[in-house]
Design a protein that fits this description.
Blueprint lengths: L15 H12 L26 H23 L5 H8 L4 H29 L1 H20 L4 H15 L1 H13 L2 H33 L2 H21 L5 H15 L11 H18 L1 H30 L5 H4 L4 H29 L10 H5 L2 H14 L5 H28 L4 H46 L1 H16 L6
Helix pairs in contact: 2-4, 2-7, 2-8, 2-9, 4-5, 4-6, 4-7, 4-11, 4-18, 5-6, 5-7, 5-9, 7-8, 7-18, 8-14, 8-17, 11-12, 11-18, 12-17, 12-18, 12-19, 14-17, 16-17, 16-18, 17-18
Length: 493
């Protein structure tokens, strides 16, 4: 907590002593009783992002959704080209080779711990722009990397800043979209997040075969560069507190010191903001439980990506060009699941609210139950049909079922985080990102020895049995979620 630094003539309290103390604790506000607090003019204030025109919302949400598509696409695009990277950079150590893909995902765990809470302090737009520039710079570094060590380090840093869009985007949508309509829009966001890693290898396989692996990164440079320009010129600030702070500063130019403007004790506020995701992860059991559950699901996703490059090359003779097409089964399953969830999430929320007479974030978790059977069935089927080299369409079909299960597990929990922690949605998503990204980055490395020992049949069966055990979790979240959320509510002051 910061202390009151003085009672200077240009500062005053916000709505009395009690509110002043709370405001001071959050942003170090100084006090003066003559000033007014700036707020929205009325419920229809056009400056409020909730009241923006449909076209303005579409532009802003469209930009953040595309950013959230490009980053995960960059995580897997290099997958089919790994043999070419290994040959060109003369690297033979298998753990190091596996890091080329997974190190980027590990960046997702650390970058948002800083960028997400800062977006709740300094606004979304500034953090997007800074992250885009750094992401672009280190992707260029990847394209020019002279050796494997440089490539891995640059991939990690690019992942740290690229992940901003994956977590801050949820906060941006919460800024602009009311709760009743948020499910469909959030589903659109996660369509990009999940389809990016599926489409990436399709592009990467053909591009690497025709132009070399470095052109994969040059393509990403072009895409990130275009989005950097679009974000800078067309993205509007949507964070309500940031908009009101700037409004107060603008009005004070016309009538000096008439309105209270938060003056941050920068050191205290930054520390509190950066620690916020970890406080949520440690102190909120529902955040901790959902994060662990998501970690397992997310780890499965990238473990499947890792096996595709081996299974369909060794068992079915796919070359570098068509190897990426093996990922499309997973993508088809995800698209079907996302289409269903875009309607189902809001429908269940509305129906449950009418039935119980109140709206609760826990209603967003109801779709978890529908997806429980798909993941283990998909894993069992994929593993054994690949083990016995059944026609390549059969294991691809089972990966589509796994894709349905992954989406029905992942998306409802993320929407829940946004609804339950709307003001601090970006920090809540960052908290879940820490654990799941570590699993997503490390599990594929551990998975390769597992498949070497157990084979694809028993290896995937082991994962399937773990998925069955984990299927108990959604029922526990539904039964105890509200109690855990309210009893262990995390204070952010």
């Amino acid at each position: 907590m910061s202390e009151l630094e003085g009672s200077k003539s240009h500062s005053l309290s916000i709505q009395g002593q009690e509110d002043s103390e709370r405001a001071e604790a959050e942003v170090g506000i100084e006090d003066k009783s003559a000033q007014k607090e700036v707020g929205w003019e009325n419920d229809d204030d056009p400056e409020n992002p909730q009241n923006w025109t449909l076209s303005k919302k579409a532009i802003n949400i469209g930009i953040v959704c595309i950013l959230a598509f490009v980053t995960p696409m960059a995580s897997s695009t290099i997958g089919p080209a790994i043999p070419l990277v290994v040959s060109d950079l003369h690297e033979t150590r298998k753990p190091v080779v596996a890091l080329v893909v997974s190190i980027y995902v590990l960046g997702f765990a650390f970058g948002p711990l800083v960028t997400s809470p800062l977006s709740e302090l300094y606004g979304r737009r500034l953090i997007y722009n800074i992250s885009n520039v750094v992401h672009l710079a280190f992707t260029i570094g990847c394209a020019l990397a002279p050796n494997m060590a440089v490539l891995i380090v640059f991939r990690f840093i690019a992942g740290c800043f690229g992940a901003t869009s994956l977590n801050v985007a949820g906060g941006s949508i919460a800024d602009q979209v009311p709760l009743a309509k948020r499910g469909a829009v959030m589903t659109g966001l996660f369509a990009g997040i999940f389809l990016g890693p599926v489409i990436g290898p399709v592009i990467g396989g053909f591009l690497a075969q025709g132009a070399g692996w470095r052109w994969i990164f040059w393509l990403l440079v072009i895409m990130i560069g275009v989005m950097t320009v679009l974000t800078f010129f067309f993205l509007t600030e949507s964070h309500g507190q940031t908009i009101l702070r700037r409004k107060a500063e603008r009005l004070n130019k016309e009538n000096p010191d008439a309105y209270s403007v938060p003056v941050a004790n920068v050191r205290a506020v930054l520390l509190r903001a950066i620690l916020r995701p970890m406080r949520m992860l440690i102190r909120s059991p529902i955040v901790t439980g959902l994060s662990i559950y998501l970690a397992l699901i997310y780890g499965y996703l990238y473990l499947l990506f890792t096996t595709f490059s081996t299974v369909f090359a060794d068992q079915y003779g796919f070359d570098t060009g068509i190897l990426g097409l093996a990922f499309l089964g997973l993508g088809v399953g995800m698209i079907v699941a996302l289409a269903v969830l875009s309607w189902l999430s809001d429908w269940l929320q509305e129906k449950s609210t009418k039935k119980h007479g109140e709206s609760k974030p826990e209603y967003r978790l109801l779709p978890l139950i529908f997806g429980i059977p798909f993941l283990p069935i998909g894993l069992f089927g994929y593993g054994w049909t690949a083990q016995y080299a059944e026609h390549w369409m059969v294991p691809i079909f089972f990966t589509s079922l796994a894709g349905v299960g992954l989406i029905f597990s992942f998306v409802p929990t993320q929407i829940y985080m946004v609804d339950a922690f709307t003001k601090y949605a970006a920090s809540a998503l960052a908290a879940t990102s820490v654990v799941r990204s570590i699993f997503g980055g490390c599990l594929p490395i551990a998975g390769l020895p597992m498949y070497s020992t157990l084979g694809y049949g028993w290896g995937n069966s082991l994962l399937g049995f773990l998925a069955i055990i984990a299927s108990v979790a959604p029922f526990l979240f539904l039964k105890y979620g509200e109690k855990l959320r309210t009893k262990y509510e995390v204070s952010f002051d």
